[in-house]
Amino acid sequence: MFGGQMKEMMEVSHEIIKMLNSGNLNFQKTFDKQDLIVDKLLETKVSAAEIIKDLLNLEKEAAQKLLDCADEKQQCMSQLCKIEQELHEVGEQNASLQTDIKFLTKELEELMAMEAEMQRMQEEVDEDTTEVIPSARYLAQLYHKVTKIDWDYSTEPTLIKGIHYGGEVAQPINIDATQHSKAFISDYLWSLIPTEW
Question: Choosing a second label site near 66 at 20 to 30 A (CA), which of 22, 81, 99, 126?
Answer without folding.
Answer: 81
